[in-house]
Amino acid sequence: MKVVSLFSGAGGLDIGLIKAGFEVVWANDFDKNACASYSKNISSHINVGDIHQYLEEIYDLRDIDVVVGGPPCQGFSVAGKMDPQDPRSEHVWTFTKVVENLNPKAFIMENVKALGQLQKWEPLRIALLNNFRELGYSVNYVVVNASEFDVPQARERVFFIGFKNNSKLIPDLEKMLEPYKVKAKTVRQALSVLDKAGTGNNISLCNAKITLAPNPVMRKSPYAGMLFNGMGRPVKIDGYCATLPASMGGNKTPIIDEAELYENEPSWVDKYHLGLINGAEPMTFQEAPKRLRRLTVEEAAVLQTFPLDYIFCGGQSSKFKQIGNAVPCNLGFNIGRMIMDCLINGEMDNIIFNINNQLEIEYN
Q1: Domain at 2-184+326-363: CATH code
Q2: What is the mean pLDDT of residues 309-314?
C-alpha cells in the first residue's frame, strides 16, 4: 500500500504507518532540519521546500493508495492568533487538491483539536467535508486523545479520514478506532528506558531557568494553570504529560521533578499547589528547587514515542520543534492499523457508518 506524505515533519506519522505495513514513497516538508532528520532515519524520499513547487511532481505519481499529512496548524491553534487569513491555513486546501489529483483509496489529514471542535471553524469543517464528498469519499472527522493509543501524553488532535466509497455514507470513526486503542504507559514507565538526565542516552539538557510565578494562575490540577514563569508546565510522572508544544526549548519546556522520578519522593509541585490552595503565599520571583528541571530532548522524543535510536538533526531548539510538531508515532501506528484493515483485509464492506441527523445537517 503506497503512501504519499505531505507536511511530513520529522516523520512521526510516517514511522507509525510504516510499522503498520505501509510503504511511504514520497514525502515533503518545508523545514530543512526536519527533512534531514527524516532522511537520516527513514528514507531519502523526503523533498525539502514549499509544497507548491512540487505539485506537478506529485500529480505525476501513480497508483498511490493513501495520502496523509498534517498541514500547518498555527492558523487554527488556540496557542496562536487563530487568524482565518493566516496563509498557513490555506494548506488544508493544498491537501485536498493532492487528494483530488492522486485519487487514493483513503486519506488521513491531522490537525489541532480546535479545528475539530471550535464553533469558529465550523464553516471550514463543513467546507472540507463537502469537498471530500464531492471527490467521492466517505469522510468524517474524529478528535482523539493520544493517551488512548499508546502515547504517554494527553495530546488531543483531530483527524479527517476518508475512504473512496459511497460518499453519502458517513464512517463512524470513533467506533472504528475503538478496537485499536492501547492504554499508554505512564510517564515514569515510558522514561525508564532513558538514563538519568545528563548521562548515557539522555544528554540533551535544556538549561532554561525555572522561576516561580509571582501571581500563579491556579487550576484544580497542579499540572494545569501556571505555577512557573513561562508556559512550561510540570509533568505528571505517574500519569500522562500535557501536550508537548513545538515551542519547547526555553521557558515553554515542560518541567520534571527529578526527586520524584528517580527517588520516588512525593511530588514537590503537588505539595506547593496544595499549599497555595489552602492559602499559602506564593514563593514570588524565587528560583525553583534544584530538583526541578526542564525536559530533555530525548525525554520529549520518548513521550512522542519516537524510536529510542532516532537521531534528530539541527540545534536544540530545532529538535524540540520537530518533536513538538510531530504526530506521535504510536498514534500514527494505531490509526494506520485501522486504515490497513479496512483497505487490505477486505473489510471495506464492514466499515461502521453513522448516518445521524446532526452529521447530515452539518454536511448539508
Answers
A1: 3.40.50.150
A2: 98
Q: Which residue among 35, 73, 206, 329 is the active-site one?
A: 73
Sign of CA dihedral 224, 228, 231, 233: negative
Q: How far apart, in whole angstroms, are the C-alpha atoms of residue 189 and residue 187?
A: 5
Distant-in-sequence, close-in-space partners of 149: CB < 8 Å, separation ≥ 6: 180, 181, 182, 184, 328, 330, 331, 334, 335
Domain 187-324: which topology? Answer: DNA Methylase; Chain A, domain 2 (3.90.120)
What one-character DSSP code corresponds to residue 286?
Answer: P
Known catalytic residue at 73: yes
For residues 6 and 26, give the distance between their C-alpha atoms in angstroms, rounded to a whole number: 8
pLDDT digits (tens, 9 = 90+) for 37-63: 999 999 999 999 999 999 999 999 999
In this prediction, residues 266-274 reach a mean pLDDT of 96
Closest alpha carbon to 89 in 116, 71, 112: 71
pLDDT at 358: 43
Domain spans, the chain = 2-184+326-363, 187-324
Considering the entire predicted model, what is its pTM?
A: 0.92
